[in-house]
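#dry-run=false #mode=assembly
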Amino acid sequence: MMHGPLHEISLIEVLQLLQRGRRSGVLHVIGVNPDAPRHVRLLDGVIVDVEPDAGDDATRAGLVARCLISEIEAADDPVLLDRAVARAMREQLAGQSLGAMLHWQHGRFDFEAAPALPGPLSVLPDTLIFSMVASETRRVELAATTAEFHAVPDYASLDLLAAGDAPALTPRDWRVLDLVDGTRDIAAIAASLDEALEEVAGCVQALQAAAILELRVPPASSAAVARAAIEAGQYEAAAQVLRHRVDQHPEDVDAWRSLGLAEVGAGRFEEAIAAWQKWRVTDPEHAGDAAALMQAARTMVEALRDSRE
Amino acid sequence: MPAARPRDALIVAALGRRLSQSDAITLANFAWFAARRGEHRAALDAARAAVALPDAPHTAWRALERLAAGQTAGMLLAGTGGDAAEAAPMGDPLAAAVTAHRELDHPAAEACYRAALERPVLAGAALNGMGVLHEQRRERAAADTAWQQATASGSVAAVHNSALAMLRRGFPHRARTMVAAAVQHASAPPALHFLAGYAALADQDPAAAMAALSTALDGDPESARAQFTLGLACERLGLHADALAAIRRALLLSPWYLPQVWLLDRGPGTAWLEVPADVDDTASTAHTDDVLLSLGRSLLQTGNLGEALAVFDQVLAHQPSQAAALFHRGVVLAKLRRYHEALDDWETVGNAESEGSLADVSRRHARSARELASLFAAP
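#status=ok
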């Protein structure tokens, strides 16, 4: 039995150790939410299953959510999970889940050695890490050209849209096109689609190159304006900008976090707690940070009440 | 279905133009996109274009099936390859074919029937549908071949349709022969018994028609066409009271008499879908007027003059110069001693039809009416 806290040994290192030792068994990982443990099964050091995020049910649900199969097929097709579309879906879900887990700095892992059993996946931890590095590189490149993914895609002019060759579009491209409305930015579209930011940004860029979409880069990031206001001690102005931002983009976790800071700066601790509560809900990975700040704000509320009494 | 916004319509139209020559997968996915934007027509057109192409994905059939039925929910996206199952028609091409056929979209229907032929369990039904399509295009040899193959596969609808085609081609006796063997089976459906009766009536055998139609009504008492046709058979046999009763029952079930329908098979365990054999309204109106004439004659024979007059008026409202209706209305009017009006109707028939027994009789009646009318003329 191998176990330990994630803040001492990262999951990347754990998986690499298990790969080097060609170990077989189940790696239980408990992250920020203790009620939602993940189970990574290995066979000779190779990841063969990620439960529940890339399990059979999640694979079926992912295919239905992406309009690739019907609910009836999901329930009744006996060979569904052997189909290429299902295998690709499972690999995508496993990649997303493992990618998120590898960033966890809170929680713990427990490896339980067990007899070797095959599974639906075949992912070498080294390969996973290389692909994560590639994704990260791509994400940085795309962030630079899409205003940190806050650029807003919209349809090209009708003349451009109707002209030119017919491009080859993937199902993901169509789902992106479905959500383009000239108001949602790339980050919001990615969140709605439950797809990786770099994948959605890549789709948008390809659709832009095909003269189907055009990209409107916001003149100035409201986050940057708000940060500058906070640094200059102009908390009311910052709070105003950030409230507008979260009204438009309730999925913007940074805006919720900054709004809490601005409210604290303005002396409104109750409002700060409310903002951080939203941050905690929308950004479970930083739930611990949000909880600590909320606790601090509550302490301030009590202290102020005591001083008034 | 969400309401379409004007800009969405323009975007869908522009993108549709760009993708109009694309492969089946792109067209099927465009149908999904257009439907999501509330552009039902564009979605339907794209789905039809997709299924007409080789290797159409099953999502295209599925899209066509739903869109043709006015639905947009449950449409799927097709992958871009790599999954062999994607290219196979896993939807229901037969359901899509029948829906397109009912909508008179014959190219789409044919494409869907051909896809259904690939599946042994659907082949008989698809051949039957193909037979109807060929007959509607007047490709009679192809229709007969398709129905023969469908009948060999056990399609009862094909027996019905091939006999109906023979009847429509002017061979009622041959139609009777074709359906006669099939109705011997205890499990023969009411639709076949009806056709046996309808063909017998067309073959001038009202007694046989009456027997077959009674059997049809035993199996399906709510068949308006069987009730109407029974009324016609009774009237032909001089059983005016029975004719009156049958036609009155029929009119309670339907105001229209549509005796000729193609039966489309939607696959094992499903009910047939009926498609009128006469696609224009004129033909169905003519069938209904035939029955109304029969009803009027029966009413006249049974002394219900007021009702008879109303029925003939109804026919003449559709066809103001319908000779039989004019003649019989003249009879009713004369019986009501409205000789001037009777004279008008008979003179119209006599002047319009220079030859024929009806014209002769009308001219004779007109002379009598003129004499009778003079008796009532002012001194």
